[in-house]
């Protein structure tokens, strides 16, 4: 699950590379848009984001978390809409508008996935649960010697 979040984050990071194509070229940096060209890079970007999230939705369905999988699919659809409306049309001109429109759905999708995974954990206590009140637990962790 962590890797899936990293891959989706990589797709979002690629969006930022379109802003600095000229500077990257001048400095000899091989960002994705410079290395592959704008058209290929924009498809790599949205593909990374979409395939990762679709894979996570498939995994959630596989482990029996159908409601969360459907919720995630519902959050992917607006992202795809905004990809076609803004980003795939012109990633340089519409990069900020695309991120402002689509990124909230990506973040909600990550939170949906976290809720599904947390639900699967059942009654297991988190590793940081000391059985104490929060203030006492923090003081205990801060004063504990390695």
Strand content: under 5%
CATH fold label: Four Helix Bundle (Hemerythrin (Met), subunit A)
Shape: globular
Give the total of domains: 1
Structural class: mainly alpha
| Biggest sheet statistics | none
What is the mean pLDDT? 83
- Tally the helices: 7
Elements, N to C (H/E):
HHHHHHH
Count the E strands: 0
Distance between the termini: 30 Å
- CATH architectural label: Up-down Bundle
Q: Spans of 5+ residues with little confidence (pLDDT < 50)?
A: none
Percentage of helical residues? over 70%
Structure description:
The protein has 146 residues and is mainly alpha-helical. The chain has one domain (2-143): Four Helix Bundle (Hemerythrin (Met), subunit A), CATH 1.20.120. It has seven helices and no strands. The protein has helices at residues 2-17, 21-27, 32-36, 38-62, 66-87, 95-120, 134-143. α1 (2-17) packs antiparallel against α4 (38-62) and α1 (2-17) runs antiparallel to α6. The protein is globular. The two termini are 30 Å apart. It holds the Pfam family UbiA. One of its GO terms (cellular component) is membrane. It is a multi-pass membrane protein.
